[in-house]
Amino acid sequence: MEKEKTEDQINSNNEEAIKNDGNVEDNEESSEKNFEQKIAELEEKIIRQYAEMENQRRRYEKEKEDAFEYGGFSFAKETLNLIDNLERSKITIEKDENLNNSKGFDKIINHLDIIHKDMLSILKKNNIHPIDSIGKKLDPNLHQAMMEIEDETKESGIIVQEIQKGFMMKDRLLRPSLVGVAKKIDKKEQNSVENKEKSDEKK
How many angstroms separate the CA atoms of 74 and 62, rounded? Predict the structure, then answer.
């Protein structure tokens, strides 16, 4: 009996040892998986932080470039007011009959033209250029339509009048051109207007 008990104890001890070995292996596998997972998480975190740093660097470079390229944007915009005032002054002087008849009229106009050309030349040296408008198709990115002008000879949307000149600073809009665009008269509408005019004449 004692011999059988001893054998049973040995067998049970062996089973427990096998179980313990299995548990140890499972624990090792589990800890290894956790370790690999932590490494993967750290790698992903490092990649995200690197990408964020790269984006910040690019933003900083873009801001620095814009500051260098367009630093005088507000100043240039204000300068356009001087050109506008100069052009208005010239128009006012040309319409003044008393000045028209004076001896110094031509000199005044010539001096204003020289100043105007000099100002445009300075703007050009700083990559500021006037926008071509007359005869062009209306572009909402460059032009702002202020009125429609009936014109049989032009397609609708073609710019026929420039109220205020627009300017570009390199590839950026400094201010849009204020323009009047052609409006093609409908033939039916034109005929009705002509008939009305004829009937008014008969009366």
Answer: 19
